Fold:
Amino acid sequence: MSIKITTKLAEKSNISSFDPENIVFGRVFTDHMFSCDFKNNQWQDFRIEPFGKIALSPTLSALHYGQAIFEGMKAVKNEDGVITLFRPLENLKRLNHSAERMCMPQLPEEIFMEALEKLLLLDKEWIPAKRGSSLYIRPFMFATDDFLGVKASENYCFMIYACPVSSYYSHPLKVRVEETYTRACKGGVGAAKCAGNYAASMYPTRLAQKDGFDQVLWTDGEHHQYLEETGTSNVFVITPDAVYTPQLNDSLLAGITRDSIITLLRSQGMNVIEKQISINEVIGWHESGTLREMFVSGTAATVTNIEMFSYRGREYRVNAKENLLSTDILNTFNDMKTLIIPDKFDWITILQESTIMHQ
Ligand code: COI
Structure:
């Protein structure tokens, strides 16, 4: 099945405002955006228009009751100008998982993939070819009922916009292990990529940043003992025996980068263990000298080392400079995305005129 996308081109490209040598994350957007509406129980009115403001009613239900979900994904261009996407259908799967939890409609694959293809090919000049840079793509859905009462909306909008980016973090992170505030709890919405999760993290993050930290490292809502994730990414802890990462549960976001790291490292024969990791265990590894490395992973964050974590006012330094597993992982992902090495996991989608094809 194919959808009919109407296209209204921007009168003038804004690309001259974009300096690929000096990219600031999330500030410059490509010339076009995709939108469609869910009305009368079906997705309709597929359109690409110049990127710009959208008119919203003050009664829009997403603004009041928070039915708003999003994804983050990236397109990369190699030296030959070939454009690839990394595991796009995993983003769709997660979007639809978030949609289900938030009582929002499912988005069919053909809408998602055809919208991506058309939008990205139209704005392909914006995809930086410099290694480590990419086009960050933000698909999102929000409730559009004009109604004051609290109920699941009947109308929704799905949109995609994109912006050229380099790294989200420009340096290794200092994180504070959070014990006072809670990001998510059992039975809550922590595993959904919904706007409210990010809103709830802002106050504790601001407090941590005032004290000189980059991020909070969330612990579980019940005991404040087990590591969960940071405000933007999943977390990994490396010892000589194993690579550990918190096991997924309903208060953790199932990162696609997280899953890719686990699969990659296991394929290289490494012992990757998904389990509950207590902060005391990590401190024990630190004290015995077996804590080799810690890093966070995410689409925006890519793979970024933690150079220090703080727990109950004490600071613990972690190697973020030498023999880093994070560097190997990042290089492998970059090589895979730019087709320098084969994609043995079938993760890469090459973006081409009229066909989305697997490598
Ligand atoms: C991502 O990594 O894509 C995210 O959504 C995290 C953040 C930029 C909010």
